[in-house]
Amino acid sequence: MNWPCCSQFPPNSALDRNQPWHNVKRVNPYKNRFTSSAKPQTPNFIGRRNSVTTWYALYGFLFVSIALFAYVVGVALAPLRWLFLDPPLFRRFNEDLVWYSGIPLVVGTMLIGWDLFRNVTRIRQAKCVRDDPPGNCSLTVALTAYNDEHSIGGAVHDFRTHPLVRRVIVISNNSKDRTMEMAEQAGAIVFNELRQGYGACAHRALREALLFEDTELTVLCEGDLTFRAKDLDKFLTYIPHADVVNGSRIVEQLQNRGTQLSLYMHYGNLFAGKMLEMKHLGTVSLTDVGTTYKLCRNTALRKLMPRLDPRINLEFNAYFLDMAMKADVRIIECPVSFHPRVGASKGGNVNNRVATWLGLRMLFGIFVDWKGFARD
Question: Which three-class secondary structure state does DSSP give residue 236?
Fold first, then answer.
């Protein structure tokens, strides 16, 4: 297969593990196995960004959403009011709710219109289609894992069989089972991240991947077999047009039966994606802010990593996208297949209640700030 992003097909197979690579910082998989070898970078939030955040459109959409919700509730209360023989106080409340729902609707529409004409028009006139294939399409894959002994071996094997994958790194987040052992047996380079939390684990995975100089591209994914290595070919088709290719699970035809993504989570995630899109209107289209599967250029990661706080936990993926766009990192979405998880879920998709709480925290980070979610 010819990968359109490659100026030249890599001469060496990813399955040949004994060949001497030049200019490669080799990492001993057994060295510092239970400690951190890649030093965390102190988050640096100082510096003027060149990107435009469309705050008016974001809050305008919030006002419009509140208005529509109030209107629907007011209309739904009308039959209930008649059922109680139309009491005066109930009728007054019902009528006022419907009538005054027009105020946030008008305000929100005006705010959206302001950003559309003031910023988005200018952004759209200045944009162009980027076509910048990376010179080297070899991949370093970094998998996060927490008590995934039943899935991590299969995930490592799946990615290692892809011809462009040079290595697979597994970051265990203090797993109490045989996750690290199974990953090593499957041929991965294994580390343990002592700081608990998905954000710390993902941050460590990206740091370790950046230590290798023979690859220009890094894949971040989970080791629970919800994603497949065959979707890397899609990512490689999109990467000439972006710095980060974000995998989207919000395609019905690519969702297998029995996945963690319930109907409620599906549309809740879509709503959160559109909220983040409204914050950066005119620069990105988003449908999935919770996906853990993405392909990144190392040049963009090195620019972004000092801005990322590893103390952000389950909100890390939405936080990653928001901070990337603030740093003028170009993001494009790519539909990927999504499969049932092997083993028990430990993240934000445990159930709808946990997903709701996580979604609200993501929305707060999008509308206000992410710093409140940083934990030591």
Answer: helix
**How many CA atoms lie within 13 Å of 297's alpha carbon, on the beta-carbon side?**
21
pLDDT tens-digit series, residues 149-194: 999 999 999 999 999 999 999 999 999 999 999 999 999 999 999 9
Q: Which CATH number is correct for 139-373, 3.30.980.10, 3.30.1300.10, 3.90.550.10, 3.90.1210.10? A: 3.90.550.10
Token pair for 88 = 């005066």
**What are the residue ranges spanned by the domains of the chain?**
55-126, 139-373
Closest among 70, 172, 57 to 114, alpha carbons compared: 57
Instruction: Say if residues 242 and 130 touch (Cβ distance below 8 Å).
Output: yes
Give the Cα separation of 258 and 116 in Å (integer): 40
Q: Nearest Cα to 271, choosing from 62, 54, 56, 55?
A: 62
Q: pLDDT (tens digit, 9 = 90+) per residue, 193-203?
A: 999 999 999 99
**What are 168's strand-pairing partners?**
141
CA Rg value for the chain: 23
